[in-house]
């Protein structure tokens, strides 16, 4: 399973030394890091990092943050991720990578819209779903 760690930050990922330790025992093929910042210039010591080359202009508590998050999600799925973890600039890992991977693998369901799904979501949705008015509960 490949997990996308999606950071929505102002400038850089804070606490990079902590995140570097978090990823130190992980197989590089099992994760990628995606960053949407105010600028496309982000300094990082982390591996497997994709920085949005054309970041959207975002404002606190506005729909622009939803659009930026959606872009991170699309990028992660298009890169082969099967799960994503959304993070902000002040996020810190409280569990190790193996625990996060196990949690992503054992997730019982997710809530997602019925329309505009990614191909991976469509495939999984067809396997086992419960439909609500505007959403699908996807059971693994």
Tell me about this structure:
The relative contact order is 0.19. Helix content is 30%, strand content 24%. A four-stranded parallel beta sheet has the order 3-2-1-4, sandwiched between helices. It has four helices and seven strands. The protein has helices at residues 16-23, 63-78, 97-105, 119-127; strands at 3-8, 31-36, 49-51, 83-88, 109-113, 129-131, 135-139. With 140 residues, it is of the alpha/beta class. The chain folds into two domains: 3-107, Rossmann fold (3-Layer(aba) Sandwich), CATH 3.40.50; 108-140, no CATH class. Residues 136-140 have low confidence and may be disordered. The two termini are 14 Å apart.
Q: What is the beta-strand fraction?
A: 15-25%
CATH class of the largest domain: Alpha Beta
SSE-based structural type: alpha/beta
Tally the helices: what do you get?
4
Give the SSE string: EHEEHEHEHEE
- Overall residue-averaged pLDDT value: 85
Instruction: Return the domain count.
Output: 2
How much helicity do the residues have? 25-40%
Q: Profile the largest sheet.
A: 4 strands, parallel
Write down the CATH topology of the largest domain: Rossmann fold
- Tell me what the CATH architecture of the largest domain is: 3-Layer(aba) Sandwich
What does this entry show, briefly?
The protein is an alpha/beta fold and 140 residues long. 30% of the residues lie in helices and 24% in strands. The radius of gyration is 16 Å and the shape is globular.
Topology:
Layout: E1 3-8, H1 16-23, E2 31-36, E3 49-51, H2 63-78, E4 83-88, H3 97-105, E5 109-113, H4 119-127, E6 129-131, E7 135-139
Parallel strand pairs: 1-2, 1-4, 2-3
Antiparallel strand pairs: 5-7, 6-7
